[in-house]
Amino acid sequence: MGMSIPQYLGQMDIRKGVVGLATGAGFIYLLYKAIRAGIKCQPPLCTASPICIARECTGPGERALPQEAPAPEASSVGGPKGLAVERERHGRDSGELRRLLNSLESKQDEYAKSMILHSITRCVYLLEAEASSCTADDINLVGFMLDDKDNSVKIQALNTLKAFSGIRKFRLKIQEHTIKVLELISTVWDSELHVAGLRLLNSLPLPDYVHPQLRRVMPALMEILQSDYILAQVQAIRLLSYLAQKNDLLYDILNCQVHSNFLNLFQSTQPGSLLFEVLVFAERLSEGRNSPHYRAVKWHYNEQSLHEALFGDESRLADRLLALVIHPEEEVQIQACKVIVSLQCSQDVGVRPSSCRPSHSYFNSGE
User: Fold this and answer.
1) Do the beta carbons of residue 112 and residue 50 sit within 8 Å?
2) Could you give phi then psi for residue 174, rounded to 5 degrees?
3) Which of 89, 115, 88, 87 is nearest to 100 (CA)?
4) For the region Disordered, what residue ranges are annotated (predicted)?
5) Cα–Cα dist 259/264, whole Å
6) Is the dihedral angle over the CA atoms 353, 359, 361, 363 positive or is it negative?
7) SS3 call for 301
8) Distance between CA atoms of 105 and 113, rounded to whole angstroms?
9) In whole angstroms, what is the distance from residue 248 CA to residue 61 CA?
10) pLDDT per position in the chain (367 positions), as tens?
11) Taking a C-beta distance cutoff of 8 angstroms, is the pair 143, 176 a contact?
12) Phi/psi class of residue 93: alpha, beta or left (left: φ > 0; alpha: ψ in -120 to 50)?
């Protein structure tokens, strides 16, 4: 318009009067000051504090740079080399991961610990050589954070352990924290914590000595599966599918109590990712109960059990499966067919009926 903001404010004063200046013009002036302040402001000086380390500042006394535009530094091989991952690419240890771990050892508040753990997780994924040079003591240090009173610290610690689990030599050490992770999942009702904990468990082979604890947390896993948080549901069903292949845990899963609307998980309106995992779970349960080892025993189930919801006389699973055969997603269609075949095979070999109700054929010859 060719006018400066003060000129524009002057015209506003003339046209609108004192009231207009106090409202509309006053607001514009405040906005003008805010914009100027934003243009003039500079990032704070970086210090040796844990917060600055977690933000990946270049060094004490230097300005922290925006995360999306890290400062390049001169490289003998040519090109910018500001990121630690770039330094590692040229065979140099940035020392960044070690600085973060050392910082975590000192007493920090919850916010600082959470930020440091988040940065450690990123470094483990990006700096493979530095992560591989860490020790069992470093894993114990991160595992110690699972006892923190703040849930955000627990979640970040779980994510960090998940990152370290990608390095083979740390898996046995991380397994030592399995019982603690199961305890957190079953006692803290926090969806993000559930996702982080279950992702960690799904990345590890679970040793036999944790099976008693797994039996105790089975109701909690089933509750998470029936919650309305998709990410947690998918992780829970993946773990349950894995456990369903363990002979000594299959009955505990099948006899676990579920809600009366459990079969809603098989509705075609559910996200395809969740539907696929639920169908895989159903197939493994069907195959497990069809095995000679399982059929050798006459099992007793409670009336609200998962077994009765899926395989009982009043189950409507067959209707849900037939509807999924025409699901828009091909992998869901295929998996639904696999479950149907598995159920029919179980009838052909004569699976022993449950003690609650007699079994029946899910699909007659016409279907």
Assistant:
1) yes
2) -70, -30
3) 115
4) 63-89
5) 10
6) negative
7) coil
8) 10
9) 60
10) 555 545 544 554 544 444 444 445 444 544 454 455 444 444 444 444 444 444 444 333 333 434 333 333 333 333 333 445 555 554 456 789 999 999 998 878 999 999 999 999 999 999 999 999 999 999 999 999 999 999 999 999 999 999 999 999 999 999 999 999 999 999 999 999 999 999 999 999 999 999 999 999 999 999 999 999 999 999 999 999 999 999 999 999 999 999 999 999 999 999 999 999 999 999 999 999 999 999 999 999 999 999 999 999 999 999 999 999 999 999 999 999 999 999 987 665 554 444 444 334 344 434 4
11) yes
12) beta
* Alpha-carbon distances of 22 from 6, 12, 161, rounded to whole Å: 15, 10, 56
- CB–CB of 255/301 below 8 Å? yes
Placement of tokens 């590692």 in the chain: 88
**pTM score:** 0.73
The Cα–Cα gap between 13 and 7 comes to 10
- C-alpha span between 274 and 231 (Å, rounded): 9
Report the alpha-carbon distance of residue 265 to residue 297 in Å, rounded: 29
